[in-house]
Amino acid sequence: MKLTNKGRYAVMAMADLATNADKGPISLTEISIRQNISLAYLEQIFLKLKNNKLVKSSRGANGGYILEKPASEIKLSNIIHAVNEEVKTLNCKKNSKKGCNNKFTKCITHNLWDQLDQHINSFFETVKLQDLTKNN
Amino acid sequence: MKLTNKGRYAVMAMADLATNADKGPISLTEISIRQNISLAYLEQIFLKLKNNKLVKSSRGANGGYILEKPASEIKLSNIIHAVNEEVKTLNCKKNSKKGCNNKFTKCITHNLWDQLDQHINSFFETVKLQDLTKNN
DNA sequence: TTAATTCTGACTAAAAAGGTAGGAATTCAA
DNA sequence: TTGAATTCCTACCTTTTTAGTCAGAATTAA
After folding, report:
1. What residue is closest to C9 (Cα–C1')?
2. Neighbouring residues of B92: CB distance < 8 A, sequence distance ≥ 6
3. Alpha-carbon distance B123 to B97, whole Å?
4. Is the pLDDT of residue B97 over 70?
5. Which nucleotide across the nucleic acid strands is nearest to A63, CA versus C1'?
6. pLDDT tens digits for range A81-127
7. Within 7 Å: CB of A104 and strand C?
8. What is the pTM of this model?
9. Residue environment code for A68-100, b if the CB has 16+ CB neighbours within 10 A, otherwise e
10. CB 3.0-4.6 Å disulfide test: which of A27, A119, B73, B109 passes with A64?
């Protein structure tokens, strides 16, 4: 699980959309100002959010984005995964030379990181976008 | 919380020490071979582990490292913190221009990342080094 | 037609990750 | 007392990732 600004921005922007869901399409310019995130960067992020069917866009003047689904049906894990393709804590599988993924010497801590991944994911699986729009 | 190879290596090396605790000081050369981690990199890691009073060293031939405390008293969080000075998911406090830490517009997701930090930390607080030396 | 907007791809700068290199200091053992 | 094994320490290096910027095309409402 990668936890970077990009993921954070994505969640912030989605929370902004959810908060303003009643106002029709929200432009990235608005979000950029409200959340203090560069417009060009937001565009990149929303490309991915759109590809992952989390938002719908309308182009042209007065265009913008709206949530594709109700905020109650969007899990934070959906958002994080959308912008950070990679979701593993650990690259045991990738670096075969590192001696972790061979059958004989599975690294001592392999199970540990598996558990950690689950632990973190369970957090993002539990929290819904809607949960962010209430009491804050 | 940063979760990188360095932290993983540190945990692996400490688990190795714990497993071989009865054999007197363990040299980094041994650990390097067993865990397949570069010696020079281990040296850097152990410098920090030592500064954080997690291991004791003895220099010279037949020297090496031993755990400073019983494995049952070393939490994984101790190890991770030792090698990754920085432990925050989030840099709300650092980037003051990013508009998160001012009193008025605390960013929507601020509480969320605080909770996440706690969630992850609780994992590392719970697991002890000793837990890694059993069933794996 | 024009301004506002999304869409897209290429580029870049800075930071972090993941190391290497070289040598000094210490200590054991032959 | 010398040499090998080891920790200690600092500086450097390379690659990858992050966090953007830039330029411009496509679309659409007014």
Report:
1. A44
2. B98, B100, B101, B107, B110, B113
3. 32
4. no
5. C5
6. 999 755 444 444 433 334 454 444 455 677 787 788 788 889 999 99
7. no
8. 0.82
9. eeebeebbbbbbbbbbbeeeebbebeeeeebbb
10. A27
